[in-house]
Each structure stands twice: as structure tokens, then as C-alpha cells.
Recover the amino acids of this structure.
């Protein structure tokens, strides 16, 4: 609506001079001429000229009405020239002249400016201010069309629809366009039949032909008219190779060809589609992946199908099934198993679930990929879910086979126990599982549980005679370690009586262990017979160390039966077989020579021991025995030299005390009385609490009598102040011996009270140290640690008594058991310095290492572990423990590189808890240092080997996910995490780790 402003002019009556009136009239006429020229130029679309004339007009004119008209024409000129200031100028006009007749034109132009700039929401801001009757009829249809398009482009379909309905009813210029947009609205509403009619009506118009054809193709796709889609789509691509709609057309064509079974063209078009958009539809990715799978392009299929699994729906379930099949085709059965497993967890499609579960069961069965017991439970699950499946019979056969081969034996046993009427095949599998569980517990030093499972395997009978026999052997091993030698021997005999030499190594070991079980019971005749049988077995010759040990025990047996010459030959054989560990045999050989009065040979043998094995625990004994032999040869000088060497080099050894007594006796017999007195007094001063000190005091009496100096002896004895009892009364001796005999028979309250009574009766008695020691043992065994500590402390008050070493050992153990680990560590270190027996030396080192672990003293852990590992005879279990402790201490000290050698050795046997954790720690080390290849290889090795320690296996699965996350392969990472989530059910921190990483992947 354009209402021309009415310009009213009139005479203004004022008191002006003629000249002034003439000037104003002149200026008015001049400005109006500028206005008229500007207006004429505006009407002839000379907008540049119009702007120039009207701008000059505004500088001269005071006519507000003409200025208003000029401002509108200036803003309109800017509009037609597409000036960036257009909207600002139009809206300034609206604000300056709110009642002007040109307001509707200004708002319409503002909306149009943004419409042509494709800023539809801003255009709507101004269109909404207008009513259709505000505009002249010729603009009303345009207004409806542009408003409808702006609503449509802004996603406000409901608001757009009335505009196009009106245009279809009364429109002329925009009726065809309205028909197109109305069809589009019906398309978005899912009214495909109505939309199709509309698009077909405008398809022949060149303006709408291309977009209408695209929508027609989509509607026909939805209707399943794939041949028509292909025909239309191919024509459109030929006519419009660069059209913006082609991305979607690639999708339609690809999926249509898929429905027609043309995998090649499916791959061609869907690949173009995927490459043309940042957000391809999951359904198209799935279709592309399936086509690639069918064409044998398995790696490509995995890439596309992996992108479909970001949601939990039927499409993802089917994608996982195809992923599993693709992984099978490329030989990656581990990822295949994971994919089948996840597909089987979804229940969107029952048939897919059945197929996926069957394939999962088959994959883990064929590849032993059953780290969390899936190989048993998955078959059970399948039979429970799909009892009527065509695969049921096959699954039953696999289940029995799995029972025989599974490595998660507890899961297998649980499964078997659910079977109400097991047949012989199942019972045979059960027997084997009990045996394997026994081995598992034995490997991890859980001896009592191992015995329970071996016993169950034996009780089941002869479903598998070989397993029963081996269960007897391994139960014997367990009982031997518990010190139940008689029972162990019975099991070894049961094994040997029920099996031939099928397993030559175990057969030989059974003979060897049976011999040892008899030897430990001091059944030397039976032990000798079994050791001789062992060394006659051909396979025994393959292990020189064990064979040498057997000959040493044969020598011991001959020694105990006083067959010294034969024993000497046996020890010679042991030395020749294993020179590196021949110190004991060499000592015994020399000792046997002495028993046969071959003294020079004995001395030569002892010298060889000292020379060849300077760190042997028998060195002090060898030197002492040399001294005794020299005495027999009447060579007192050489004897004195030997005994002095023992005292000088081994002052803490019990042999040193005996050497001191021997020196005193030699000097006395040689009438060297002063030297004798000095030797005896040295024993008394250095070892005041020992039996040797008492003997020395007693022998000194004879020396002083020989000197006729009894007074000096009395003074010496008086100076001891009771520290060394030198006269034992008969009542003292008898009272103690009665108490000791009672205690040795049965260590109970009654016998302990006898010892207490002795101490009360003879507080300074000759046997107080022994009495305190035995009471300490009694209280310790009854867990009365405070009382035990008091008694053992009393033992230590007399240094270097024969019980001090064992007292320190017990006191260290008390501190360890009461969790006072710092004090325990100090005592174990004291024990290390005092230890003369191999058992106490081992206890000291092991106790020190374990105590240091509790207080996190990593330096002491490493020292103690090094000391332990220096023992070549350390048991395999303790070797593993020491290596693990040392490795963990290095890790905690920030010296991970030093931990690697131990971790590498331990990780070779993940059946042990140390091996399982070491495998994880080593893999984590590789990962932390960027060596993803070695980390992944180590993890896969553990998965293949299997381990009963599920927590550390789960940690390795987590690490495997981390490896793939670091490679930006979130799909693989997610699969490992989901597989772990589905199959690991322990209540620990694994679930939290899984969720953290799944959240990370999701973000």
C-alpha cells in the first residue's frame, strides 16, 4: 500500500523584510527542484543519482514532510543497491516516523533484505511485524511466499504450511513453487503418497525438475521401489554430476543396489556417500560393510561395521555378528570372539543372538580363547537359551571336550556339578578337572587345597587311570612339603604301583621322592633301596644335580649303616657328577676316610673343600676336623693352627667354642699350662652362656691344680659372679632332666609347669638358659607371644649360648606375627649375622624381605632379595617370591628398568600369582615407554597361555583397551572393555576402570 504524502504549502505570514522573503523563496524553490529531480531519478531506478539529489535536498530544505519522503527514498535506494546499511536505514526511518504511511514498505524491505541474504530467521523478524492487508495486492502473494519459505528454511514447518496452503488456493505467480514446497512439507510429515503427487505435478517445470526428482527417488526408496530409484538416480547423476543433493542420492542408489543384490555397485555408491559426508547414516555404514564382507573385502568391512556399534540396538547387534565373521576370515579369532560375544549379549533379534552365541562358543573352543571361563559357561548358556537349536547336539559334544581342555577349572567344575546324571565321559572330565585344580593350587603354594582336589580325583576311581595315578604322585608331593613323610611315601608307592614308565620324568621323580620320604623318617634301609632304584633309571642320568644329590643320600645311608668305604665311594660319585654343589659330598667323603683311619686322605679332602668351596657352610667344620685329625696323628702344632684358624675366621660359629676347648686340652697335655689357662679363659669370656664355657671352667680346675694354684682358680670362679655355672648339683641336674624329659614327650601345660618349677627352684641353675628357651617355644606355639618374648629375652641375656640363634629367630617371628615389622626387620638382620644353619639363614633373609615389604623399605627389600637369590638351592616358589619382591621394589623406587629382567622371567609362568602380576607390570612398563607392540604381544601371550589369577588377566584386558585408545582405535578398545564387562564378575576395582574408559571413549 503506497499512500503518497500530501504536501501542503501555504503562505507564512510573518514580519519579514522583502529581501529576506525573496531569499527564503529562492532557497525553497531551489530545494524543491533538488527533491523533484531526486524523486524522478528514484522512479526511473537511477538510485545513485537519486541519493545524490536527495542528499543535497536535505541540506537545504526545512520541509519536514518532503524530508520524510526523501528519507524513505534514500533507504529504498540503499535497499535496491543491496547496500549493507539498508536495514539500518530502513529501521531508522521506522523509528523516526512511526506514523508514516511508508512503515509497511520499510518493514517488508527489511525482511526481503535478509531473505535474499538467506538469513531466514532474521527475515522472519520483520515479516512477522506485517499483516497481509498492510501491503498492496501485487506484493501480498510475494509476502506469503517469502514468509513461508523463511519459516521452512528455519525449520518451522508448522508455521510455513498455512502460507503455501493459501498460495495454492489463491496464488498465481507462486502457485507452482507453493506446490513444490507443500509436497516437501508432506514429505517431512511422512505423507509420502501426497508428497509424491505434488512432486510429480512440478517435475516437468525446469525450476523444480531436479529437486523434485531427488525427492521422488527418496519416496520410491521408502516404498521399496528400488528399480525406479535406480533408474531415476542414475539419470539425475548423469544430468547433474555436481548437484548438492548427490550425497544423499549416492546413499539411495547404494542401498537400492544392495536390495537388488549388486554388491559391487552398492560398494561404489555407498563409498562415495560415506566420503561425501561427515555424518553418514549408521544404516548405510552397515549396508556398505555387509556388501564389502560379501565381496571378500574383510578389512574394509571391519572398518565400516565398527562405526555402527556406537549404539545398543538391533543394527549394532547384526553389525557385531558380521564383524565376528570378518575377523574370522582374516584370522583374528580373538577379536572375532569378542564381537560374537557382544552380539550374543543383545536380544533385539533372537536368530542373530543364537547364531552369534553359537559362533562365540565355537571360536573360543577352537582357539582356547577362554580367559574368564567362557568356554564352559557359554556352552551352558547356549543350551539354556536355545535348547531346541539345531546346534544343540554339537554343543553337547563340545561341552564334554571343553571339560577336558578348559583352563578355568573352577568354572568347569561348577558346570559339571549342575549335571544331575553325568555319564562316564563327564565323570572322566570331572576327574581331570579335580587334578588340574590340584596342580593350580600346588603351583600357588596352597597346599591344603591342592590335597583336597587331588584326593577328590583319586576318590572318583578309574574313569581316567592315568589322572588317578598322577593325583597320587602330586598329593604325595603336597604331603612331603607338609612334613607328612609317611603319608607322602604311601602316595608315592600308590603312584609307582599303578603306572608304568609312560612319563619317565615323573616316574623317576617318584622314586627319588619316595627315597627321601623314607630318609626323612630315618628308615635308612628302605631309603637306600629306593635311592639305588632311582639312580638305576636311565632317565635319571639327564639331571646331574638331582643324581648327585641322590648319591649323597646313598652315601648318608651307608654311613648310618656304618658301611664307610661304600659311603666314601658314593660321595665321590656325587662330587664328580655335580662339582659346583659338591661341598657336602666332599666333606662327607673326607670324613669317611677319617673313619677308616685314612688320616692323610681326610686332611687332603678337607683342604680341597676349603680351597674349592671357600664360601661353603662346611668350611669351619672342615678346618675343625683337620685339627682333630692332626691330634690323632700326634701333630699338636698343626692341630693348634687349625683350631686357631676356626676361632679367628669363624668366631660366631659353635665350632669356635669347641675349638677353644680343644686348644685348652692340647696345651694342658703339652704341659703348656699358661697357654691352656688363656685358651680356657677365652672360651669363658667369649661364650659365657655356653656349655663349652661351663666345661672350660671345670677343666681350668685341673690346670690350676697342676700348677698348685687353687687360690687363683677360686678367685677366677668368684669373679664370674654366677655368669658361668661351674658346679652343677645333682638335684639341679636331676630336676632339670626330669622337666626336660617331660617337655620332650609332650609339650603341654603340665610339662611347661615343670620347667617353671625348675626355674623357681634354681634361679641360678646350670640349665636356666635351656629352660627359658623351651618355655619360650611352648608359649610361642600357644600364641602367648608376650610370655614367649619374656622367656626368649632371658635366653639372650647370656651371649653366644647354643640357644641364642634360635631364640633370635623366634623373637623376629613374634615381631612379624604381631605386625611390628620394623622391629622384625632389625631382628632378622641380627639373625642373618648369627645364623650358622641354612634354615635360620633362609628364615633371616626371607623374614627381612617380607618385613621390609610391609614397611615399604625398598632398599632393604632389594638387599634381602639379592641375598635370597644368591642361594643356588632356593626352592622355585621362594625364587619367584624374591624376584617379584625385588622387581616391585625397583618399580616403587622409580628404577623400572632394573625390574624388567625379573619381570620377564616371572611372566613366563602366569599360572603363579607372581607370574600373572609380573606379566601385567611388564606390559604396563612397555606401554608407559611407548612400546605398544611388545605390550600387546605380552598380553596376547598371557591370554593364550591362560592363568587362574583372573584379576591380573582383567587388568591386562584394561591395558589392551588403553593401547587401542592410544592408537585412536576406540572401536577395538570398546570391544575389549565390553567383553571384560560381560565376563568378569568379581567385586573389585575392575568395573570402575571399565566404566572410566567407556566414558572416555564416549566423550
Amino acid at each position: 500500500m503506497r499512500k503518497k504524502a500530501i504536501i501542503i504549502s501555504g503562505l507564512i505570514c510573518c514580519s519579514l523584510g522583502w529581501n529576506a522573503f525573496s531569499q527564503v523563496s529562492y532557497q525553497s524553490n531551489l530545494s524543491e527542484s533538488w527533491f523533484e529531480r531526486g524523486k524522478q531519478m528514484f522512479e526511473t531506478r537511477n538510485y545513485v543519482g537519486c541519493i545524490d539529489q536527495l542528499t543535497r535536498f536535505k541540506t537545504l530544505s526545512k520541509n519536514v514532510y518532503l524530508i520524510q519522503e526523501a528519507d524513505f527514498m534514500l533507504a529504498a535506494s540503499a535497499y535496491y543497491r543491496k547496500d549493507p546499511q539498508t536495514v539500518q536505514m530502513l529501521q531508522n526511518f521506522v523509528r523516526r516516523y512511526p506514523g508514516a504511511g511508508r512503515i509497511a514498505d520499510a518493514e517488508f524491505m527489511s525482511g526481503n533484505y535478509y531473505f535474499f541474504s538467506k538469513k531466514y530467521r532474521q527475515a522472519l523478524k520483520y515479516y512477522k511485524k506485517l499483516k497481509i492487508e498492510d501491503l498492496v495486492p501485487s506484493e501480498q502473494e510475494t509476502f506469503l511466499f517469502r514468509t513461508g519459505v523463511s519459516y521452512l528454511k528455519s525449520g518451522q514447518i508448522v508455521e510455513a504450511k498455512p502460507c503455501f496452503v493459501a498460495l495454492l488456493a489463491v496464488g498465481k505467480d507462486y502457485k507452482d513453487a507453493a506446490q513444490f514446497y507443500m509436497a516437501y512439507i508432506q514429505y517431512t510429515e511422512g505423507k509420502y503418497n501426497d508428497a509424491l503427487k505434488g512432486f510429480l505435478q512440478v517435475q516437468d517445470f525446469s525450476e523444480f525438475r531436479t529437486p523434485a526428482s531427488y525427492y521422488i527417488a527418496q519416496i520410491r526408496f521408502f516404498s521399496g521401489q528400488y528399480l525406479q530409484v535406480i533408474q531415476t538416480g542414475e539419470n539425475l547423476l548423469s544430468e547433474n554430476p555436481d548437484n548438492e543433493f548427490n550425497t544423499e542420492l549416492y546413499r539411495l542408489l547404494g542401498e537400492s543396489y544392495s536390495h537388488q543384490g549388486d554388491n559391487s555397485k552398492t560398494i561404489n555408491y555407498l563409498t562415495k556417500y560415506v566420503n561425501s559426508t561427515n555424518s553418514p547414516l549408521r544404516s548405510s555404514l552397515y549396508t556398505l560393510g555387509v556388501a564389502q564382507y560379501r565381496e571378500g573385502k574383510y578389512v574394509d568391512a571391519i572398518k565400516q561395521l565398527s562405526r555402527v556399534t556406537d549404539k545398543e540396538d538391533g543394527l549394532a547387534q547384526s553389525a557385531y555378528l558380521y564383524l565376528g565373521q570378518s575377523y574370522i576370515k582374516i584370522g583374528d579369532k580373538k577379536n572375532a570372539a569378542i564381537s560374537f560375544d557382544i552380539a550374543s549379549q543383545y536380544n533385539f533379534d533372537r536368530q542373530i543372538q543364537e547364531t552369534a552365541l553359537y559362533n562365540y562358543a565355537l571360536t573360543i573352543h577352537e582357539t582356547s580363547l577362554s580367559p574368564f571361563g567362557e568356554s564352559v559357561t557359554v556352552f551352558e548358556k547356549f543350551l539354556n537359551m536355545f535348547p531346541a537349536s539345531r546346534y544343540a547336539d554339537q554343543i553337547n559334544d563340545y561341552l564334554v571336550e571343553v571339560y577336558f581342555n578348559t583352563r578355568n577349572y573352577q568354572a568347569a567344575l561348577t558346570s559339571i556339578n549342575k549335571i544331575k546324571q553325568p555319564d562316564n565321559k563327564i565323570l572322566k572330565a570331572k576327574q581331570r578337572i579335580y587334578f588340574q585344580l590340584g596342580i593350580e593350587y600346588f603351583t600357588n603354594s596352597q597346599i591344603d587345597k591342592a590335597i583336597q582336589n587331588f584326593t577328590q580325583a583319586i576318590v572318583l576311581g578309574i574313569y581316567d587311570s592315568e589322572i588317578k595315578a598322577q593325583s597320587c604322585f602330586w598329593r604325595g608331593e603336597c604331603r612331603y612339603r607338609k612334613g607328612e613323610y609317611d603319608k607322602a611315601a604311601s602316595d608315592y608307592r600308590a603312584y609307582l604301583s599303578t603306572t608304568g614308565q609312560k612319563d619317565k620324568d615323573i616316574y623317576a621323580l617318584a622314586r627319588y621322592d619316595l627315597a627321601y620320604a623314607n630318609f626323612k623318617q630315618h628308615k635308612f634301609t628302605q631309603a637306600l633301596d629306593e635311592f639305588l632304584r632311582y639312580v638305576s633309571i636311565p632317565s635319571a642320568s639327564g639331571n646331574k644335580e638331582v643324581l648327585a644329590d641322590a648319591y649323597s643320600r646313598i652315601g648318608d645311608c651307608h654311613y648310618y649303616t656304618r658301611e664307610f668305604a661304600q659311603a666314601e665311594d658314593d660321595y665321590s660319585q656325587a662330587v664328580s657328577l655335580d662339582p659346583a654343589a659338591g661341598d657336602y659330598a666332599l666333606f662327607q667323603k673326607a670324613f669317611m676316610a677319617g673313619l677308616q683311619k685314612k688320616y692323610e686322605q681326610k686332611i687332603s679332602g678337607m683342604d680341597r673343600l676349603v680351597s674349592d668351596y671357600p664360601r661353603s657352610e662346611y668350611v669351619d667344620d672342615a678346618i675343625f676336623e683337620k685339627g682333630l685329625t692332626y691330634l690323632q696323628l700326634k701333630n699338636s702344632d698343626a692341630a693348634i693352627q687349625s683350631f686357631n684358624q676356626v676361632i679367628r675366621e669363624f668366631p660366631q660359629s659353635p665350632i669356635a667354642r669347641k675349638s677353644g676347648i680343644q686348644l685348652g686340652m692340647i696345651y694342658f697335655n703339652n704341659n703348656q699350662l699358661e697357654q691352656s689357662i688363656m685358651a680356657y679363659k677365652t672360651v669363658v669370656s667369649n661364650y659365657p652362656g655356653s656349655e663349652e664355657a661351663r666345661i672350660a671352667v671345670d677343666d681350668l680346675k685341673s690346670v690350676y691344680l697342676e700348677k698348685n694354684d687353687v687360690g687363683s682358680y677360686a678367685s677366677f670362679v668368684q669373679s664370674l659372679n654366677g655368669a658361668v655355672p661351674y658346679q652343677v648339683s645333682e638335684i639341679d641336674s636331676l630336676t632339670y632332666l626330669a622337666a626336660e624329659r617331660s617337655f620332650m614327650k609332650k609339650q603341654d601345660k603340665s610339662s611347661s609347669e615343670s620347667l617353671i618349677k625348675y626355674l623357681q627352684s634354681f634361679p641360678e641353675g646350670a640349665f636356666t638358659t635351656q629352660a627359658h628357651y623351651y618355655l619360650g617355644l611352648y608359649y610361642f606355639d600357644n600364641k602367648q607371644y608376650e610370655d614367649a618374648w619374656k622367656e626368649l629375652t632371658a635366653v639372650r641375656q647370656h651371649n653366644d649360648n647354643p640357644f641364642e640363634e634360635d631364640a633370635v629367630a623366634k623373637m623376629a617371628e613374634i615381631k612379624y606375627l604381631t605386625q611390628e615389622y620394623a622391629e622384625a626387620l632389625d631382628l632378622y638382620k641380627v639373625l642373618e649375622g648369627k645364623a650358622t644353619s641354612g634354615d635360620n639363614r633362609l628364615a633371616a633373609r626371607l623374614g627381612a624381605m617380607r618385613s621390609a615389604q610391609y614397611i615399604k623399605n625398598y632398599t632393604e627389600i632389594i638387599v634381602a632379595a639379592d641375598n635370597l637369590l644368591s642361594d643356588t638351592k632356593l626352592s622355585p616358589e621362594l625364587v619367584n617370591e624374591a624376584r617379584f619382591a625385588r622387581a616391585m621394589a625397583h618399580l616403587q623406587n622409580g628404577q623400572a628398568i632394573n625390574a624388567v629382567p625379573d619381570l620377564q622371567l616371572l611372566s613366563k609362568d602366569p599360572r603363579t600369582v607372581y607370574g600373572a602380576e609380573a606379566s601385567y607390570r611388564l606390559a604396563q612398563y612397555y606401554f608407559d615407554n611407548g612400546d605398544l607392540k611388545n605390550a600387546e604381544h605380552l598380553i596376547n601371550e598371557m591370554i593364550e597361555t591362560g592363568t587362574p589369577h583372573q584379576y591380573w588377566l582383567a587388568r591386562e584386558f584394561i591395558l589392551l583397551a588403553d593401547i587401542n585408545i592410544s592408537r585412536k582405535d576406540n572401536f577395538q578398545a570398546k570391544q575389549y572393555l565390553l567383553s571384560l564387562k560381560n565376563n568378569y564378575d568379581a567385586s573389585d576395582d575392575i568395573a570402575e576402570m571399565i566404566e572410566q574408559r567407556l566414558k572416555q571413549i564416549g566423550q
User: Anything to note?
Assistant: DSSP finds 53 helices and no strands in the chain. The chain has a mean pLDDT of 87. The domain at 907-1003 is CATH 1.25.40 (Serine Threonine Protein Phosphatase 5, Tetratricopeptide repeat).
